[in-house]
Amino acid sequence: MKAEMDKIVSLSDGESTVELQKYLSSLTNDQLITAMTNSALRGKKVGTMLKGILKGSPPGSSEGANRRLLVYEHLIPLCESGDLQAEVAADIIGLLMLETRTLSGSSLAKLAALFVDAIKAGKMGSGKSLELFPTILTALAACAALSYGKGELSGEEYKKQLINSLCSSRWDPQCVIHLTTMFRDVPLSAEELQFLVDKVLRMFSKMDLQEIPPLVYQLLLLSAKGCKKQILDGIVSYFRDQDDRQEEEQEDGENLHLEVQTIPQDQLRHVEGTVILHVVFAIRLDHELGRELLKSFKTSYGDLCPFSVALLLSVARVQRYEEQVFDLLKGAVIKSYKDEQLQQGSKFLQDLLPVHCSVAKMILDTVKNSVFGWDHVTQGLVQLGFFLMDTFGPKPGPFGKSTEGPVTAARTPSQQACKLGGQMLLQGFKMHEPIRGEILEQVLNRLVTKTASPVSHYLDLFSDIVSSAPMILLESSSKVTETFDHLTYLPLGTVQGFLKAVQPLLKVSMSLKDSLILVLRKAMFSSQLDGRKSAVTGFLLLLKNFKVLGSLASSQSSQAVSSSQVQVDVHSRYNSAANEAFCLEILSSLRRCLGQQADVRLMLYEGFYDVLRRNSQLASSIMQTLLSQVRRYYEPEQDLLPPVKLEPCITAHGDQVYLQEPLAHLVSCTVHCLTWLQNTHQAANLNVDDSDDEAEEEDEGYKSELQTILESMTRRMIKCELEDFELDKSAEFSLGSSVGVKNNIFAVLVMGLYEVLMEYNFIRANYNKTRLEELLELFHRHHKLSEILKEKSGKGRGPSHKTPRSLLSMGFVSTLITALFRDNSQSREEALSVLRSSGEFVRYALSVAVQKIQQLEDTGHTDGPDGQHSDRTFRFLCDMTSVLMWRYTNIPRAVEEAGKKEKRCSLSQLCLDGLLRIFTTCQQRCPEKMAQLLSAMDVEDEAEQDDVAEINYFYIRQFQRALFTQLSGGEEDFNSREAQLLVSILTVLSRQLKPSSKQFVQMITWTVKICKETSFEDSAFCKGLLSLLFSLQVLYKTPASLLLELCQDIHSQLGDIDQDVEVEKQCHFAIVNMKTATAAALLVLTQVDRVLDEVDWLIARKKSQTASEKPGSADASQAAGQQDPVEKAVTLQLGTLLTALNELVQTALLPGNCTVTLLRELSRTYATLTTLVKYYIQACASQHGSLPSRFEKLVKLSGSHLTPQCYSFITYAQSGESNPGDDKKKKKRNEVNAAASAKLLRETTAIPNLIFSIEQYEKYLITLSKKSKVNLMQYMKLSTSRDFRINAATLDAALQEQEETGETQESQDAEESQEPKRKKRKQ
């Protein structure tokens, strides 16, 4: 064989090809094959030998052509077998490629068939010879004609048949990558490419996971030919399916306590990471691919999944896409939350559509998955987190004030999106070390730079980071130290939040603590008031959190114990000793504040009590400080009145008078600290007999002195008359003059002192009758002064005087009202009857309780001790709820009838006001505690204690009974304000019911019954009741039919716009009557707006679904009989709405707001109808289906019923008529009304907008009629409502008049004919 090989090589080197041809002819096919095989296997001179064989086989002769074919047919499988060295195989294929174009058509066809068969049989494992296939196919396409079966085909067609056959056959998973690579070099038409891409994408699921990245890489290279969207969608949907399967397996595994994993999670994540890198690399090179990717997610966020979110975040690293990606994700997040909110608030939508996918969950899953080495995604996650927090964080209100109080549960989509940003960053911080520094730096930068807008969301994030990973944070402590330097310039709220968050770190890091103290000391002498306040805040926080040895353990420590405290306790003995020196040093710094402005002192007084509770060893220093401060203003001479010096409490600057010392707060702080110390020492003395004598004596010293001062103050304050304070009735209290301001300050101080002494004496009295009589004396003085203040401020023309905040503590108010209303013990009966007998005092106690609850509702905390402790305030709330509830339900109203003559709200009403505020506060600020609040009230046997829904419903029934009692009396006994409060409470409590529960159904049935049977003419009550009905109805079923009934009632009550028409008397709901109809109409229109929102949303969803569906798919070609459920629901909703609006449009509504709102809603309805018509135009274009008969009926209804009535209503609105009255007064009032409404209509563009909406609707109906070949315009009448209108009746009258008068009329005619022109000029 070697000889033959050498012979061929030597002959091919020679000049003459004739000899070479002769020699080759002499060899049999087998010999030739053996020679080629041996040469190829040895790898020596194979190229030269092949060249020789091809040189000696001229393609022109049949023998040569056959020999060439033989070479190809033998060498292709040989290269594929894997027996040859890689370089040898590559050389052979290279040579064969060069000679391919010389092959005849039939040879090419045979070779192509050989390839196709080999691929079908799965023999193309190594894919070496596949490089030759594109060349063969290209050569084939160039052939003029080829025999195919019995006929002939052109080369191009033959190639198409081959590709079709190849893509239709089964592929071996091993050769998919080689085939995809090979097809890159094959010229393909668009259909062929689509067919091929489909085939490859279907093969994904059959392939080994590790082979997916290289295949994706080849597909992305193939995308240069086209089908970009299809390829990207296929890749994303494959990984979406994998993720879903992974999640299901995890859930199954958790349920069965087994590990069920077809694909290991880490392997899948690593493959996803690699694929994302490939895609991003491809997008960098081909921007068309990037545009396609973004386009596919822009239409609907429903296509997003954790993988595609990660992919988008990686693409965001390409600068040109960064902004687009973040805008797209921001839009998806906010839209997802809005859709969720819309769906949760409407039973109609819940029944119609499945629960939608949550983009927030996908994003958080992406954060979780990124732990598997997705470094290219983490940067995008950080940016997106901050982008969401910046965009959706709380906005500054007017004058830069923060609009939101402290934390309420995230309710609105914006709040939820902001919270999501925070969660992403917190999770990212915990998982990824490289990005920690950046997250921390960005959070701190924002705290420092965003001084004009609220930063509560960044403070929450920082606080979470500190508590979740304090040790990690210490590595970046330098960044925190840098922030300390800016504290003096930051708003007080930011400083408080920041220092609270940093507390756990200070306990671990001495250097941090030292640098903070340096900053705070400087701040003490800051020129800015806020800087000094910040210093006080910081020092008080430090005092609270650094325990001194021997301090009583306070069970209610507010700082959560974190892992950082483990390190503190190692040297706790040393720490406590050091802490004592440290705390005393801080206290000496704080004493300097006592010479500063009132605001700074106030902060100090409010903080001392908390410090004392947490660090009782500092009692002596704190009490001495307070005592020396009280002595400054106390009059030690026992005979002198008043017992306090008020002059030093104020200061003057120019002609302005300011408060210098908040004396009442100082005494209040002293009283609370003293009381707490006495209580704790009593408790401690019961447990421990012997104690440190010196300290005890010192304690007794300041205690007895303070007690003496307070006793003396009480005695003398009771003796004082207002004249002693220079505050009698003749004194000036206007805030316009400095004397008035001074008197006001004195009055507030004195009233505060009375309140503080009342609290002190109640606690000291321990239910002693004479002591409580003294307390009542104090109250009378307080009451007298407050009455004078009220009277004076009512008269004054200057700014009105607000009621000052009560200085009674929340805990005391809770104890007091419990004692007044619920204390039944015999021993206290006599003493408490003193207080109970004073109606004014009972009212005062209740009104202060309501004031405290209101403060809690507005700000989340109250003044005074324990005001900042949410747990304690919640406990007080529970006690108050119980008392107020008992007071309201158990004391008959007849008892209060006497007080009805006064123009004040009854005590029952105060109780209700308090209860409403408590329920609202609890629901907004701590919804999870609502059940606890309700359980805390005294439940009778009727309700089972453990069932929360039952307890809730028990209270609902109590309030229902109360409302029913109100309504069953006559209209003259009806207390509107109380009824409104009851309805508001029922509204709040009904939110706690699950819409699927039987209690909810009972609630809605009861509400409907009340609305149907109550006929009181009170519009505010009607508004409240109907609002409650609507809020329940939307969660039960669609409110459209309810709206129709209400519209019919309103129409029959107010009458028709055509006075000659007699309206059929209908009365579904008695609550709708002449007085309440306008209020009801406005409410109905608000609900119409809401229903239109839902309908618009459904149409938009259907539109995006239709756009993303492939034409000709199964869903697209639905039979006309089987209308899509969403389309059907939309048509039915709009049908009912049109009928309801048809009633309202014929109603003689009062000119003004109601009319304008109706016109606006009508415009909106036509706009929604236009959207629906556009949807059907789109559907007709893509599906060629017939229009549903329901839709035709809807169009008919709009054209024949609503549109003509709209035009009549426009005429009515413009004439501004209301029912004419006979009296002159009525006539005059009508003229005023007409003028006002005409002005309102001129200012708004409601009428032109409505006409435009109707005409747009008709314009698109014409388009749809053409597209669908259905004449929809047959139902439409020509519009008459233009600027120029002919009113037939007026015309007749004018003509008659013209006949009677002669020439004078002609001049008037001329004027009239010019009028329209004048109008046009105006326009």
From TrEMBL:
<feature type="domain" description="FANCI solenoid 1 cap">
    <location>
        <begin position="5"/>
        <end position="56"/>
    </location>
</feature>
<dbReference type="Pfam" id="PF14678">
    <property type="entry name" value="FANCI_S4"/>
</dbReference>
<feature type="domain" description="FANCI helical">
    <location>
        <begin position="288"/>
        <end position="369"/>
    </location>
</feature>
<dbReference type="GO" id="GO:0070182">
    <property type="term" value="F:DNA polymerase binding"/>
</dbReference>
<dbReference type="InterPro" id="IPR029305">
    <property type="entry name" value="FANCI_S1-cap"/>
</dbReference>
<dbReference type="InterPro" id="IPR029314">
    <property type="entry name" value="FANCI_S4"/>
</dbReference>
<feature type="compositionally biased region" description="Acidic residues">
    <location>
        <begin position="1297"/>
        <end position="1313"/>
    </location>
</feature>
<feature type="domain" description="FANCI solenoid 4">
    <location>
        <begin position="1043"/>
        <end position="1292"/>
    </location>
</feature>
<feature type="domain" description="FANCI solenoid 2">
    <location>
        <begin position="377"/>
        <end position="540"/>
    </location>
</feature>
<protein>
    <recommendedName>
        <fullName>FA complementation group I</fullName>
    </recommendedName>
</protein>
<feature type="domain" description="FANCI solenoid 1">
    <location>
        <begin position="66"/>
        <end position="283"/>
    </location>
</feature>
<feature type="region of interest" description="Disordered">
    <location>
        <begin position="1295"/>
        <end position="1323"/>
    </location>
</feature>
<dbReference type="InterPro" id="IPR029310">
    <property type="entry name" value="FANCI_HD1"/>
</dbReference>
<dbReference type="InterPro" id="IPR029313">
    <property type="entry name" value="FANCI_S3"/>
</dbReference>
<dbReference type="Pfam" id="PF14676">
    <property type="entry name" value="FANCI_S2"/>
</dbReference>
<dbReference type="GO" id="GO:0006281">
    <property type="term" value="P:DNA repair"/>
</dbReference>
<dbReference type="Pfam" id="PF14680">
    <property type="entry name" value="FANCI_HD2"/>
</dbReference>
<dbReference type="Pfam" id="PF14679">
    <property type="entry name" value="FANCI_HD1"/>
</dbReference>
<dbReference type="Pfam" id="PF14677">
    <property type="entry name" value="FANCI_S3"/>
</dbReference>
<dbReference type="InterPro" id="IPR029308">
    <property type="entry name" value="FANCI_S1"/>
</dbReference>
<dbReference type="InterPro" id="IPR029312">
    <property type="entry name" value="FANCI_HD2"/>
</dbReference>
<dbReference type="InterPro" id="IPR026171">
    <property type="entry name" value="FANCI"/>
</dbReference>
<feature type="domain" description="FANCI helical">
    <location>
        <begin position="554"/>
        <end position="790"/>
    </location>
</feature>
<dbReference type="Pfam" id="PF14674">
    <property type="entry name" value="FANCI_S1-cap"/>
</dbReference>
<feature type="domain" description="FANCI solenoid 3">
    <location>
        <begin position="807"/>
        <end position="1029"/>
    </location>
</feature>
<dbReference type="Pfam" id="PF14675">
    <property type="entry name" value="FANCI_S1"/>
</dbReference>
<dbReference type="InterPro" id="IPR029315">
    <property type="entry name" value="FANCI_S2"/>
</dbReference>
